[in-house]
Amino acid sequence: MDASHAHHHPVFCTVVPPHLLDKIAQSENTRRADAAQRTLEQDSLLRTRRRVTTVRGIAPALGTPVSDEPRRTIYDTQHRTRLPGKKVRGEGEAASKDATVNRAYAGLGATYELFLKGFGRHSIDGSGLALDASVHYGEDYNNAFWDGQQMVFGDGDGDLFLDFTVSVDVIGHELTHGVTQYTANLQYHGQSGALNESMSDVFGSLIKQYSLDQTAEDADWLIGAGLLGPNVSGVALRSMKAPGTAYDDDELGKDPQPATMDDYVDTARDNGGVHINSGIPNHAFYLAATELGGKAWERAGLIWYDTLTGGELASDADFKDFARLSVAAAVARYGDGGAEHQALQKAWSTVGLG
User: Fold this and answer.
1) Catalytic residue among 136, 173, 174, 197
2) How far is residue 181's CA from residue 129's CA, in Å, rounded to a whole number?
3) Is 123 helix (H, G, I), strand (E, B) or coil?
4) What whole-number distance in Å separates Cα of residue 72 and Cα of residue 330?
5) pLDDT tens per residue, range 80-138
6) For this structure, is 174 an active site residue?
7) DSSP H stretches of helix in the chain
8) Dihedral (C-alpha) 93, 97, 103, 104: value to the nearest 10 degrees?
9) Which of the residues 275, 283, 340, 341 is marked catalytic?
10) pTM passes above 0.85
11) Active-site residue, 298 included
């Protein structure tokens, strides 16, 4: 894909959806409400800034071989919001005394490694893009995001949310928004936006499974496990195995994700429910991966990767488009009589997109 194509729809993607923060901002607990409100205001500011600045495509110099090694730099914003902050760890440098810095560094490495070893992709853009991340962003900032050029992690409020580097799948989720930006560039609205979110959940989960060497059966299929504070009734931000069951809490509300098209949520909020309806393609991937068994990145993951990067997926694609193209990708890679083709047909059919 030409670099220019990747810049039509600059999107600002956070791992904690606005509907969740909106709910907390109405809390009777003023500390919780204030932290959520500050996070929403910061996100809104960043979203606006993201719209007015084009995404810089960073093309490698022609003829330079791309290294198989990542190029990571971690910065510390020291609780301010000016990016990137002070450099605290570069590629190959000794571990920091700050566990957050080291988790961010390791998470960038795990993401780079899965995309390279699993799919033959050199970094986010396929051409060895340097991976930068800033930690300790803002005060009690309850989110993490990819801003089109780098990763940014808040520390959470220590109450409802913990440090956003604790879940490697959250790191993988946000970096995958970058992969999507450089490939299909799915518009961040409605079903194409929910597919954009789902791609990040799928590959975020695969990065966690790869780093733990888990099979599809062993995996928890949770996004953001370990991120919710000790007083929250919930296990994660989302569940691919059972969308709608990740949390049910007085402050956070109930997980609104549907697992099938029967429960599809029509809403104008959250860019047309991009963080809500992503539960449907998420669940389809879970069903296909567990049906096939073994390491989920080896077959189901490859089919999803082929679909995302194959050039056929339009930036305004809907769920049916993705379902159809993923089945075609399975046939192209594995033939039409195989377990892969059947697993995909069954999975999409189960979620109501047969």
Assistant:
1) 174
2) 13
3) coil
4) 34
5) 999 999 999 999 999 999 999 999 999 999 999 999 999 999 999 999 999 999 999 99
6) yes
7) 18-25, 30-52, 99-113, 119, 168-182, 190-212, 270-273, 279-292, 300-309, 319-334, 339-350
8) -60
9) 275
10) yes
11) no
